[in-house]
Amino acid sequence: MNDRTTADETHVGLVDAGTHVESFRQTRSNRRTELVEDYVELIADLIDHDGEARQVDIAQRLGVAQPTVAKMLKRLATEGLIQQRRYRGVFLTEEGKELARVSRERHQVVESFLCALGISPETARIDAEGIEHHVSAETLEAFRVYLKR
Amino acid sequence: MNDRTTADETHVGLVDAGTHVESFRQTRSNRRTELVEDYVELIADLIDHDGEARQVDIAQRLGVAQPTVAKMLKRLATEGLIQQRRYRGVFLTEEGKELARVSRERHQVVESFLCALGISPETARIDAEGIEHHVSAETLEAFRVYLKR
DNA sequence: GGATAAACATAGCCATTGCTATCTTTCAGA
DNA sequence: TCTGAAAGATAGCAATGGCTATGTTTATCC
């Protein structure tokens, strides 16, 4: 059809294949970690709010079934982010607390940034939940700068 | 630990459970559709640029193996987004073209917006790839408004 | 203290999305 | 034209993240 390869490239949306693949790889990598971050962040919130994080509460908040939570908690435990005692609640390890702190702060910055742009609180909350995991350090810093404008 | 339930709620990061679950449901729903959008957008780009969309090219761009692409194309075909002829390239249906158009435009707005915030083109490209699928119509409009500032 | 409800554990199922290995088809060049 | 390389098709495997059903433990309430 056409064979534009220089200035027109961006016009047809095709960057260099090498850089293109890198974006997708990064995105797939983010997609693998976002569930973990969601869990750890939620567990920290529940502990702060209720003093404990029970599977039923996590399941209710996430909108999934309790065995789904149980399976994921095993994964978090093997990754060293939480500690479990049978038939008891879960607790964050130091590593888990740190991940929760970083995730929560990033989440907060993203949500505040969207609100500052004039987006409604409800939409900002929903969009931030999805966007937060794909925001690099550089972009997060730009959001912070905008908030301090 | 504590039992703050009113003004302090946002401080401890716990909104109402009903709204909370809705955010996560929406995010999970977005996660299911984002791969489809990635494929359709890329297929449209390849057709515009090369006149055809071959499995090997799609695979190279996405950084996955060719059989992975073949499997996904079957899904896109059953969803009515593309047409396939054995041992030939793929073509977008009208529905596929429309989805590609919408995805591509949204992608462009997100990437331009990030650049306008002062983020480097490389980071903007990577982050936009992940963020675009989680941007609601309202947020997209806010990005557009900012770009027209 | 014993019954019952709630919470957690576990087994087993399914769909998705990746992979390698291998077969079939197409196509270009000698 | 024929042959070899490249592209697509297909089979089969693994990990992930959902689910239901059901068993086990804990906690609560007479």
UniProtKB/TrEMBL annotation, chains A, B:
Keywords, ordered alphabetically: Activator, Cytoplasm, DNA-binding, Manganese, Repressor, Transcription, Transcription regulation
Coiled coil: none
Signal peptide feature range: none
Alphabetized SUPFAM superfamilies for the sequence: Winged helix' DNA-binding domain
Function noted in UniProt: In the presence of manganese, represses expression of mntH and mntS. Up-regulates expression of mntP.
Subunit structure: Homodimer.
Protein name stated in the entry: Transcriptional regulator MntR
